[in-house]
């Protein structure tokens, strides 16, 4: 059989991931903080973008004369060549909604207000009334770090310069919890000092605040704090030396080793629970970041739910058409024209993509609210099992789009603020062939049953399975054990020991 070369022509279609399409995908899954940083960068690069001021703070625009035309009758190149109408320009480029969101085919139904008309400047409401004054309340004090606190205490705690140097080296070896993880022998060898001198300085450092710093393990950390409270007696020291028995809740063995009765043991456990196992953690944290919900859900007058975008999270940007008209008449060189064209394309793409992002979030959130109406009305026990595919099919979008929308987005409801991913839970089959149960609601029932159990009737995992099956939930024992461990609930044996010890002390 002879081989021959031949030419074939094939026609096919493929979605090309243009840079703007990839950026739009990123834009969809940005958190509020990430989106604000991205917009700030875009405004810095693009002179045609600006943050819109509030209506009350925005100055009245000054009337400007129309740009003068050239004597030879040359018209404005920008008006004739580029057509600065944003929508028509974007339709000619690859930034149209059909290209940026192929799984949301070009619907123009407004599920939220036109953001290009309602965005306002985040900085418009701040300031000092336009007088250029300085508001001291706008300045936050810098957080004191653990190293700053220790540097001050070392300066007052040691008189000898050598001791201060050693103490500074010990402070540098602390981890985020305030423990020394370096080997003292290696540290003494590195510093070229005797081990005894290092331990002497270490004892002095253990008197610093907060108590518990410079410990080498958890037992020593708790002992330092108890010593400061004058509560480190021999029985308590034995208890600290056997924290593994405490973790297993073996109170019988602890009573025998410590030589105390049940009442004294319960008092000792109460004192230990009041201590701080990570004394350095209070300095490392930057404080709890306030969660700003992206969507607000309120009861509507007709008995349904009103789903709205949170105006505090709306990106307030627009294209500065006034500035564009001012500079377009002065652009004559090809480089200037190309620069303005790129800026206009980028600005048009950003405003339209932000508008589409907001409408997509509302669309997904509205479907979640429709699916989880029972949860909003009656509580977590009525949370329905839900997956991304169900929502995607209901709103005619792709699963990946729903996944990006629900990532790191929050919804404020009458029952609290929840991440959108909270409403997506696995399904637990019904024992009676009815509707499936949400895994989250099953976890809630397990925790509720364990919280209500009595010392004489502690429920094992098998007993919990029987109770759930009687209520119509078909669940395996290993699933109950997995949910219980995920909620940091000890086993029935450990709970029985603890409850009996607590009951004996009362």
Overview of the structural elements:
There is one protein chain. Helix content is 50%, strand content 6%. It is mainly alpha-helical. A hairpin with a 5-residue loop joins β2 and β3 (305-309). α1 packs parallel to α18 (334-371), α8 (161-172) packs across α10 (195-205) and α15 packs across α25 (492-505). The longest helix is centred in the last third of the chain and has 38 residues, at 334-371. The radius of gyration is 33 Å and the shape is extended.
Distance from N terminus to C terminus (CA atoms, Å) equals: 97 Å
Shape: extended
Quote the average pLDDT: 77
Count the beta strands: 8
Number of helices: 25
Radius of gyration, Cα only, in angstroms?
Answer: 33 Å
Low-confidence stretches: 65-132
Structural class, from secondary structure content? Answer: mainly alpha
The description of the largest β-sheet is: 4 strands, mixed
User: Order of strands across the widest beta sheet?
Assistant: 3-2-5-6
Helix content: 40-55%
The share of residues in extended strands comes to 5-15%
